[in-house]
């Protein structure tokens, strides 16, 4: 979905790979050249119970009373149920104007009550193009930040911003989200929100300390099918829920070797670093919502397995000329990872990731319970008593269950079938009305945790890895999520 979205095989581990040990020194948005992607990826940063925590963060105790790794002590009050401050106009700053950010700015500009105040990208042409869009939309010319790798800090320091949107390569997400919150801004980040467990914990702690929301902008949660299944699940149409599945199976070989798409090439180089599921959020987020994860249930463990890494090397051999820089890369990322996630209520979620082999696009998007099952790609449903004789039913017959957002915006603008627009409309509506966001930093951390933990599990031959309880026990309390009622308030009174 998101487009921000690694010759011989040596078998080197990420924590043994010299490419992965130098700290990145250059800010590279989705349209910026550069090759340094190192993050110091020692296994200690990935293992569930032994994660190295960021400087200044308290290390967790060895185990909790139930035998699982304990959460580090809280440094602030929970952000669960905390509303935005109501604002008639939401003032937005955008960091990263490449493939994703450069497209999403059109949707920000299409929303009432939203003003794009500031833009940041070291590629001046991209920033200028985006700034021209703002002016063409009838808004004042935005401030621009193009002076290099850390100019996003100056954007975040502005006093006239309410919300910062981050659409940059993955290894930059944590630092930018952290800076935004420390600067007093709410922040929304493209997937994944960070790449290490210690970073996820620090984002949770910072959100609680600064009282700023940090959200994973997971657009797939706002897909029409996903929101329809969500409402049906909460109405009991599938009975008691038992299992679900989600994936990011998307053939990206051509794009990853295209020097003009993922410049750097930052995304391909992650396949030289990690063996696990690099992009779990699109599949995990919707299923977690169906099962009320962090709202009455929680995910507890993940076991992951990976195939050999062959697809990218074979594609390179067929398509890339001798002497291309990609011939220096050794790919270790599993062509397909398959993970099983257990919840506290005993449910099972299957996650898959495959961007290195040929196959049609699929997020799987499946949910099953004691009364039936839904499966996507293609969409089909079988629930009792509506269906019999083991024959799939027509999911379009259940349009009455569409979420109110899709009933109000049946033909939304923008890409990905309109889910991007629905996501931004709802987020900006929540800020303008002073509502509790549909999801929060605890969801962001949970949906991203499979990135480091699947890597650790594969390295441990599939051994289960404990998924931290980022809510620190508050998951037991049921609370609203994305299955939200339509607000009755009138935005017009706020201008």
Structure commentary:
The chain is 26% helix and 15% strand. The chain has 495 residues and is α/β, with parallel strands linked by helices. Strands 13-12-11-7-10-9-8-14 form an 8-stranded mixed sheet. Strands 3-2-1-4-5-6 form a 6-stranded parallel sheet, sandwiched between helices. Helix 1 (99-109) packs parallel to helix 2 (124-136) and helix 4 (173-182) packs parallel to helix 5 (197-210). The longest helix is centred in the C-terminal third of the chain and has 15 residues, at 419-433. The protein is globular. The model is unreliable at 1-63 (pLDDT under 50).
Blueprint (SSEs and pairs):
Elements: E1 90-95, H1 99-109, E2 114-120, H2 124-136, E3 143-145, H3 151-156, E4 163-166, H4 173-182, E5 186-189, H5 197-210, E6 214-216, H6 224-234, E7 241-249, H7 253-256, H8 266-269, H9 281-290, E8 299-306, H10 311-319, E9 337-343, E10 348-354, E11 366-369, E12 372-375, E13 380-383, H11 404-408, H12 419-433, H13 441-448, H14 450-459, E14 465-466
Parallel strand pairs: 1-2, 1-4, 2-3, 4-5, 5-6, 7-10
Antiparallel strand pairs: 7-11, 8-9, 8-14, 9-10, 11-12, 12-13
Helix pairs in contact: 1-2, 4-5, 5-13
């Amino acid at each position: 979905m998101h487009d921000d979205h690694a010759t011989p095989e040596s078998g080197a581990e990420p924590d043994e790979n010299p490419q992965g040990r130098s700290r990145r020194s250059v800010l590279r948005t989705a349209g910026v050249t550069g090759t340094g992607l190192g993050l110091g990826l020692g296994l200690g940063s990935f293992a569930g119970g032994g994660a190295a925590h960021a400087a200044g963060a308290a290390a967790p105790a060895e185990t909790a009373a139930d035998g699982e790794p304990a959460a580090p002590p809280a440094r602030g009050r929970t952000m669960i149920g905390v509303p935005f401050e109501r604002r008639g106009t939401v003032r937005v700053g955008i960091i990263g104007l490449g493939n994703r950010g450069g497209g999403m700015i059109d949707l920000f500009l299409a929303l009432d009550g939203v003003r794009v105040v500031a833009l940041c990208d070291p590629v001046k042409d991209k920033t200028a193009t985006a700034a021209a869009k703002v002016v063409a939309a009838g808004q004042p010319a935005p401030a621009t930040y193009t002076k290099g790798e850390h100019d996003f800090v100056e954007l975040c320091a502005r006093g006239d911003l309410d919300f910062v949107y981050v659409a940059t390569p993955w290894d930059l997400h944590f630092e930018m989200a952290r800076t935004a919150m420390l600067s007093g801004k709410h922040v929304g980040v493209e997937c994944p929100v960070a790449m290490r467990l210690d970073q996820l914990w620090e984002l949770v702690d910072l959100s609680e300390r600064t009282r700023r929301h940090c959200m994973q902008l997971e657009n797939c949660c706002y897909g029409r099918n996903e929101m329809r299944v969500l409402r049906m699940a909460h109405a009991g149409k599938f009975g008691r829920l038992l299992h679900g599945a989600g994936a990011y199976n998307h053939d990206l070989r051509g794009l990853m070797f295209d020097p003009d798409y993922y410049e750097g090439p930052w995304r391909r180089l992650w396949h030289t670093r990690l063996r696990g599921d690099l992009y779990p959020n699109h599949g995990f987020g919707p299923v977690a919502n169906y099962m009320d994860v962090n709202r009455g249930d929680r995910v507890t463990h993940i076991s992951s397995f990976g195939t050999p890494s062959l697809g990218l090397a074979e594609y390179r051999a067929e398509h890339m000329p001798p002497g291309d820089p990609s011939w220096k890369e050794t790919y270790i990322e599993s062509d397909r990872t398959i993970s099983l996630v257990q919840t506290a209520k005993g449910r099972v979620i299957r996650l898959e990731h495959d961007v290195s082999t040929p196959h049609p696009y699929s997020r799987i998007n499946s949910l099953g319970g004691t009364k039936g099952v839904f499966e996507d790609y293609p969409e089909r449903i079988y629930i009792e008593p509506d269906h019999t004789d083991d024959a799939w039913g027509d999911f379009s017959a259940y349009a009455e269950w569409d979420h109110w957002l899709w009933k109000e915006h049946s033909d939304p603008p923008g890409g990905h079938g309109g889910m991007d627009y629905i996501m931004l409309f709802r987020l900006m509506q929540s800020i303008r009305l002073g509502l509790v966001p549909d999801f929060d930093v605890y969801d962001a951390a949970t949906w991203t945790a499979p990135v480091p933990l699947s890597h650790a599990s594969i390295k441990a031959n599939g051994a289960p890895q404990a998924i931290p309880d980022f809510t620190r026990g508050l998951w037991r309390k049921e609370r609203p999520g994305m299955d939200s009622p339509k607000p009755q308030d009138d935005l017009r009174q706020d201008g």
